[in-house]
Every structure is written in structure tokens, then in C-alpha cells.
Amino acid sequence: MKIYGVAFLAACYLIGQVIGKYIGIGLGIGGNVGGVGIAMILLVMINDRFYKKTSLHVETQAGVLFWSSMYIPVIVAMSSILNVKVALSNGWVAIFSGILATSCCYLLIPLISKWSQLNLKESTE
Amino acid sequence: MIGVNVLDEIFIKNGLIVAFLTVGVMLFLADGMSKKIFNKRIPGVAIAILAALVMAYFGGDKGISNHSFFSGMALLGGAMLRDFTIVATAMGANLSELRKTGLPGIISLFIGVTVTFFVGGSIGYAMGYTDAVSFTTIGAGACTYIVGPITGAAIGASSDLIAISIAAGVVKTIFVTIITPLVAKKIGLDNPSTAMIFGGMIGTTSGVAAGLAATDPKLVPYGALTATFYTGIGVLLCPSVFYLLMVYLL
Asked: Which of A23, B91, B128, B134 could anchor a disulfide with A33, C-beta 3.0 to 4.6 Å?
């Protein structure tokens, strides 16, 4: 049943939220630290384990895949509720610091990517 | 007049359903434009996101959802469904691929937060915000629009500074959303490993997710996975280590 997949996804999500919250409290910064990431790792690991043994039932998988495919519409809706006016009207400081700081990171991505591939080669050799 | 009232009532009551319809129509039109006008060179998703941003501009502090007609957009595009669907994308991720780039992913998180903070803060400094609190708040805002206000509140920044830091973070999200599909090829963003590093370096979950969706939806889980740790690390470093460093330096 599809609902099994949705429930499985919900369980991963909630466990991730709880762990993330506790990490946040533990670090003394409140908020949720990596809750979504932890939920994703959980989902991948459980899925991987089941896949080797029985393979998650097709219908169960379909329950997760539906929400995965709803992801793009959610992102479109999310873009439509950003505070674009404030972003553009709060002066050049916000615009420059937002864009230039991010651009520097874009420039560094190929370097780190190359370094990581070199590292990987060394470790496998 | 009665007709309008009835319609109004139905649309407001069923906000989420209206949002499904709205987004569905937007994506349909955007896909059509992508095929007919741009010869698929600009993905439909990118066009739809751009249209959504333009719509948001004509809304208020919560974008288009300030109009009661579109109030459901706030639920569909809110943090709960955003995070839920992002977790679901992990279904398409490959465990060994994630393991392979684990360490570079973590390192890219720290480099990303550090570089963004200092470049963002320095630009504020160059434009006249020269004290440690301003530097830290603007630098934190350049990380994400969540790191900014949390940091600002923690170190006692004024509300207009916090407003600037939120604005810097939102500018970043919009910038990442628009620019990622355009520069993807140049920065080699076409494999899971680079996507994880990209998520760690850029960090804004919304921007990374939207940017990757417009670039290649298969990469979304990899980028999103590292990006979700970025705000946490930013909130950890900015009001503590980085602030103390700025107090010492300025």
C-alpha cells in the first residue's frame, strides 16, 4: 500500500527532526541542526538494507516517489512566497554582500571538486 | 456581487488546493514556453521559478501568499512540505555515492560558511558598516537568511542591521536559484559528488534545491543533503568564533 511508503517517509522525517533538534540544543544554539540531512541518510540506509533483502514493495516505494516528485512544485510555490521586495529594497549592501560572497563560493567549487577527486584516486590506489 | 463573494470564500477556504492548481498551471505554461520559445535551452522549471519570484515581488513580506487568494502557497511552499519532499528525494540517492563524497562534503561546508561570512562582512565593511557587530551580522546574513537574524539577535544587533542581513540572505537564495542552471556546466556541476560539494559551499537549502531542480533533478538529493547542515554550522560559528575574531580584529 502506498500509505506504507508515506508513513515510512514521515517516520524518517520526524526522527530526523527530533535528532536535529537535540543536536541544536546540545550545541547550545537552538533550532534544528541537519534534521533534514539526518532523515535523508536514514531513508537511504533503510532503503538500501531492504533493497538488498526484499526490495521495498513497489507500491510502498510509489508512496515515497510521489512526494519526491512533488518536490519541484513545492519549490515553485516556495519561490513565490519569498520576500523579494525586501531583498531588492534593502539597499546595495544586502545585494552586493549576498551576490559577491556567493560568487566567490561558486568559483571555489571546481577547485574543491578537483581536490576531492585527486584524494579519492589516492585512497583507492 | 454574490457570485464573487461565493468564489472568494471557496478559494480562500481551499487555499492548498488552489495552490496545487496554480503551480500546476504555472509549470504547464513554463514547460510550453521552454519547448516552443526557448527550444528547451532554458528548462521549464527555471522559467516557473522565475515567474514565481516575479509574482512574489508583487506580494508582501510573505510574497504572493499575502494575497488571500494565494494564501495556500504559503502552506505548499512552506518549510514543512519543503523539507518533507526534500527527504523523499533521497529515495533516488545512491548510498555508495554519498559515502564517497562524505568528507569533501563536510569540508566544503566549513569552507563555504567561512568564505561567505568574511566576503559578505567585508563588503559591508567597505560600504561603511565597520564595527564588529555589523560585520558579523551582515556576514552571517550572507550565509543564509536564517543565520543572519539568529546571529544578529545573539550579539545585540539593531533591527535595521538584522533587516539588511535577512535581505542579504534572500538575495543569495534568489541569486543561487537563477544563476545555478546558467553556470552549472562551467563549474562541473553534473555529477553527485560535485553536487554534494555545491550544497556544502552554497548552503541555502531553498536556493540549492531550486537551482539543482532547474539544472538536473537527479542531483537534488546530493546537494540538499549537505546544504541542510549549512545553516546549523553557520549558526554555530557566526555568533561565537567569528564574532570574537571580529571583536579582536576591528
From this structure: A23
